[in-house]
Specification:
By secondary structure, the protein is mainly β. It is built from no helices and 11 strands. 0% of the residues lie in helices and 55% in strands. The N and C termini lie far apart (40 Å).
Length: 127
Amino acid sequence: QVQLVESGGGLVQAGGSLRLSCAASGRTFATYAMGWFRQAPGKEREFVAAIKWRSGVIPTTYYADSVKGRFTISRDNAKNTVYLQMNSLKPEDTAVYYCAAGQQSSSVSVPSDYHYWGQGTQVTVSS
């Protein structure tokens, strides 16, 4: 069982930055692939970024085309935390952002492949 708690959301002007954090409970955090998704009002939940990690191997990161070059996902296994650094934010980035944990062997972009979800944190980008 893994419990996830997101933080770091807020209101920011277009062009600004935010860093989201996702703190995980449980000793098996390092065995999970971690992902960030977002959901805007009236829209489906969409993939933002994911990170897979194996001992002794540089983590593999994945990004949606819409955030590539602006967002960076990272993880600190010692702190059981995954981060999403968001730069050059745009009004269309406004959404509730969710952290999720899933199996390393699963697809990174499909929400149903993730087993555990946080409660979400609101990100609002004003123009």
